[in-house]
């Protein structure tokens, strides 16, 4: 059995292989898992193998080349003219086997791991930019209902956003600030900052009986989203704040010396919540106390 070319239709879990002989006669038509496929091709005569340039093709192409096969990747649009009648996986594999034999066919170079990593970074960046643009457009639509119009660029959105006084607090940026204001307004629903922290669920859960007080982990009550982003902001402050210059630095150093890192972060979130309530309820700007 002399194989002239092989076509493999790639899937996420299944792979369909068709091997053609002289005059395009089908010699092999099999379905495999990835492991079964590599075992089969390792024991197959060295052949010309075609793959569609899609997800997983570069990995499989390198693996087949290590086995000694001549592997070539073909763009999907160049395989389509060779598909006969109705489409299925075996028909696609046969079309690939026919296309890979063409002398004037254009092939896609098999990428290295480093090339794939760089390509992935750029694709993720492109996705982030597109999502950012979509969110900005959504905000513009919301604000248009309030009669507010501004240009499309991110800088214009940032300039048009109203500033909030609690953004002056270390660890509270625009996301946390706007979420707090949206949740509690001027904080009038709470008598003191500890009530706000308890509402957020960042105070110890109490289990006391028989006159014995027992404090457990944080209660995690209240607004899950607000608690999550406040803790993220606290983590950034704990890691990045210049403790030798910040009034809160001495307190952080003392807490670091006796508590695990996550406990320090939650304690910082508790403190930020109380400070934010004080600023909102008093109507004054944030004024750090001198060390």
User: Which percent band covers the strand fraction?
Assistant: 5-15%
- Spans where pLDDT lies below 50 across 5 or more residues: none
The first-to-last residue Cα distance is 86 Å
Overall tally of structural domains: 3
Query: How would you sum up the global shape?
Result: elongated
Number of strands: 7
Strand order of the largest sheet: 3-2-1-4-5
Question: What is the arithmetic mean of pLDDT?
Answer: 85
Radius of gyration: 31 Å
Please give the largest β-sheet. 5 strands, mixed
Number of helices: 11
Helix content: 40-55%
The arrangement of helices and strands along the chain is: EEEHEHEHHHHHHEEHHH
Helix/sheet category:
alpha/beta
Can you describe this structure?
- The chain is an alpha/beta fold.
- It has 3 domains: 5-110, Nucleotidyltransferase, domain 5 (2-Layer Sandwich); 114-158; 163-282, no CATH class.
- Helix content is 48%, strand content 12%.
- It is built from 11 helices and 7 strands.
- The protein has helices at 34-42, 57-66, 76-79, 89-99, 113-144, 154-160, 174-184, 193-200, 224-240, 249-258, 261-282, and strands spanning 5-9, 15-20, 26-32, 48-52, 70-74, 204-206, 215-218.
- A 5-stranded mixed β-sheet has the order 3-2-1-4-5. A two-stranded antiparallel ribbon has the order 6-7.
- Helix 7 (174-184) runs antiparallel to helix 9 (224-240) and helix 8 (193-200) packs across helix 11.
- The longest helix has 32 residues, at 113-144.
- The protein is elongated.
């Amino acid at each position: 059995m002399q194989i002239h070319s092989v076509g493999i239709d790639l899937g996420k879990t299944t792979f369909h292989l068709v091997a053609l002989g002289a005059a395009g006669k089908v010699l092999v038509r099999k379905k495999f898992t990835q492991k079964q496929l590599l075992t089969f091709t390792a024991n197959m005569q060295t052949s010309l193998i075609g793959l569609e340039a899609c997800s997983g093709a570069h990995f499989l192409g390198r693996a087949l080349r290590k086995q000694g096969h001549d592997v070539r990747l073909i763009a999907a649009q160049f395989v389509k003219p060779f598909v006969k009648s109705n489409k299925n996986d075996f028909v696609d594999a046969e079309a690939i086997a026919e296309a890979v034999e063409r002398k004037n066919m254009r092939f896609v170079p098999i990428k290295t791991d480093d090339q794939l990593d760089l390509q992935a970074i750029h694709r993720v960046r492109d996705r982030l930019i597109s999502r950012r643009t979509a969110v900005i457009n959504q905000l513009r639509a919301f604000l248009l209902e309030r009669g507010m119009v501004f240009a499309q660029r991110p800088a214009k959105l940032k300039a048009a956003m109203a500033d909030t006084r609690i953004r002056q607090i270390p660890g509270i940026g625009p996301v946390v600030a706007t979420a707090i204001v949206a949740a509690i307004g001027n904080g009038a629903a709470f008598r003191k900052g500890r009530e706000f922290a308890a509402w957020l669920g960042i105070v110890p859960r109490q289990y006391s009986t028989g006159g014995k007080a027992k404090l457990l982990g944080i209660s995690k009550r209240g607004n899950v989203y607000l608690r999550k982003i406040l803790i993220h902001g606290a983590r950034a402050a704990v890691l990045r704040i210049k403790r030798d210059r910040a009034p809160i630095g001495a307190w952080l150093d003392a807490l670091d010396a006796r508590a695990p890192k996550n406990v320090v972060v939650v304690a910082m979130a508790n403190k930020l919540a109380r400070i934010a309530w004080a600023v909102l309820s008093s109507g004054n700007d944030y004024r750090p106390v001198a060390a």
